[in-house]
Amino acid sequence: MSYIQQSFKVQFEYKVFFTEKIFDPTNTCFAGFLGSLADEGTRRKLLFIVDDGVTKHHEQLQSQITAYCSALDNFELVEDIIVVPGGEAAKNDLQLFYWLVNEVDQHAIDRHSFIVGIGGGSVLDLVGYVAAVSHRGVKHVRIPTTVLSQNDSGVGVKNGINYHGKKNFLGTFAPPAAVFNDAQFLATLDERDWRSGMIEAVKVALIKDAAFFEWMETYAHLLSEADPQSMQYLIYRCAELHMAHIGGAGDPFESGSSRPLDFGHWSAHKLEQLTDFELRHGEAVSIGIALDSVYSWLQGMLDEQSLHRIIHLLKTLRLPLYHPLLEIEDGESAIVAGLEEFREHLGGRLTISLLRTIGKGEEVHTMDLELLRKAVTMLREKW
């Protein structure tokens, strides 16, 4: 037997900037980033794709982008700023994906150009996927506009859309060229959006950082009222912990079956689908975290005091703990079916993150349906 073996490594690096009023003429953050990449004598194109919910609340945004980019050296703004539906609908519309790929082609966006996505996590997932598959990879920049996307999905390396009712079935691992978290966008968020966006901070604190969880307990009432200073710290620390895991855990593109950052997500993904995405992602994850925390206690892993602290924090943040679709009858439910879909999504062995204590997660490979039923009953009847 003869063969030729190839082996190489690819280095990825990107920054997450924290700023405000990114397209104000006096703000040099975005211009400075582009200027550091400019090639003398070469004009690169910028194609903007914007969440329609953002344009409704920031009516001057498109004119601000146009004016700001007109002052950039060596960069050319594509005149047509594309506006797309926000929310999960953006990831469910396969024709929208094809249309955006066609726009990339029509505007002659090449691999030296940049596609800039502005919006919530769903729009950024879609835009990142469009960029990743066009020309085998066009550079993309993310400008997240929600708490959830600024502290979690927008700062990571995943992109994707839903397919055949399965969340993120089509997608890529393609790091952004840069991320810009603009605090101004958070001021116009719907209450459900900023409230549910905090759950990813609760999640990462529970599995990674007990001190951060204690900080959230201390400032829970301010966070529940969207206090700007508290929210900014929550977003920064949550993003920092997510990025540290992505870059430091040894599996940034998730080639294995371990997914500690998916704590509370196995049931959440199914709940989103079953409610036709009426539940916000963060609301579904809150329910999933409550379920898996109670299950961890029933398994004898998590102590009762810690369980009560977790439930109390979720309630103080006014996040949901239960949904009727959790109910399990005769060992069967649509939620239980979500376990198999989650295993399939992992690409191998079922791996569920549970809690050993606040700040430390632990992985298991089986779930006891009777204990799951008891956990659901507790959420329904006790809290």
UniProtKB/TrEMBL annotation:
<keyword id="KW-0479">Metal-binding</keyword>
<keyword id="KW-0170">Cobalt</keyword>
<dbReference type="InterPro" id="IPR056179">
    <property type="entry name" value="DHQS_C"/>
</dbReference>
<keyword id="KW-0028">Amino-acid biosynthesis</keyword>
<dbReference type="InterPro" id="IPR030963">
    <property type="entry name" value="DHQ_synth_fam"/>
</dbReference>
<keyword id="KW-0057">Aromatic amino acid biosynthesis</keyword>
<keyword id="KW-0520">NAD</keyword>
<dbReference type="InterPro" id="IPR030960">
    <property type="entry name" value="DHQS/DOIS_N"/>
</dbReference>
<feature type="domain" description="3-dehydroquinate synthase N-terminal">
    <location>
        <begin position="82"/>
        <end position="195"/>
    </location>
</feature>
<dbReference type="InterPro" id="IPR050071">
    <property type="entry name" value="Dehydroquinate_synthase"/>
</dbReference>
<feature type="domain" description="3-dehydroquinate synthase C-terminal">
    <location>
        <begin position="197"/>
        <end position="326"/>
    </location>
</feature>
<dbReference type="Pfam" id="PF24621">
    <property type="entry name" value="DHQS_C"/>
</dbReference>
<protein>
    <submittedName>
        <fullName>3-dehydroquinate synthase</fullName>
    </submittedName>
</protein>
<dbReference type="Pfam" id="PF01761">
    <property type="entry name" value="DHQ_synthase"/>
</dbReference>
<keyword id="KW-0456">Lyase</keyword>
